[in-house]
Backbone:
């Protein structure tokens, strides 16, 4: 397992289990990634032995809540439970390509989530997006555009006495 934190990315490699039946599961290496420039999302890459890894992206808030209680609906559902006396987080993922039930070690997921919450505390996500700066730029550009819009670039054919 590897922890990395560089260039405003919080990552953790860990082994999940793909649950095939109540008695059988297979290990799946995975990487959890959180990017400060995409502050509402978590990214999970599953290395399943195919040519291309499988990537999932969903709300960080969903994973934070799922560590404590069942949440989500539709494509992503997450809930805590115990398996053989171990605390785990189960993630049920559905896509047109199929469904998967994954088991993740609760302590490792929680520790990684804590690092993401330190990087971008809840409620401060919009500050990371630069929305205020972009909006100010857009409004400033809009004021210039409004000024230009109000000018008549072509004199009217109906003007009289040299009036424009």
Residues:
């Amino acid at each position: 397992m590897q922890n990395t934190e560089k260039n405003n990315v919080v990552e953790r490699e860990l082994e999940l289990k793909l649950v095939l039946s109540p008695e059988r599961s297979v290990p799946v290496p995975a990487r959890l990634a959180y990017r400060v420039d995409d502050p509402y999302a978590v990214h999970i890459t599953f290395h399943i032995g195919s040519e291309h890894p499988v990537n999932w992206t969903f709300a960080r808030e969903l994973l934070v809540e799922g560590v404590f209680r069942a949440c989500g609906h539709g494509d992503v559902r997450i809930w805590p439970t115990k398996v053989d006396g171990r605390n785990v987080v189960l993630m049920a993922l559905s896509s047109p390509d199929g469904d998967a039930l994954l088991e993740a070690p609760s302590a490792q997921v929680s520790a990684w989530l804590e690092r993401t919450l330190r990087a971008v505390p809840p409620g401060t996500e919009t500050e990371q997006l630069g929305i205020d700066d972009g909006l100010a730029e857009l409004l400033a550009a809009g004021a210039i555009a409004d000024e230009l819009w109000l000018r008549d670039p072509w004199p009217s054919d109906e003007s009289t006495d040299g009036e424009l």
Summary: The chain has four helices and nine strands. The helical segments are 60-66, 106-119, 125-129, 131-150. The beta strands are 2-6, 9-21, 24-35, 41-46, 54-59, 71-73, 76-83, 86-95, 98-105.
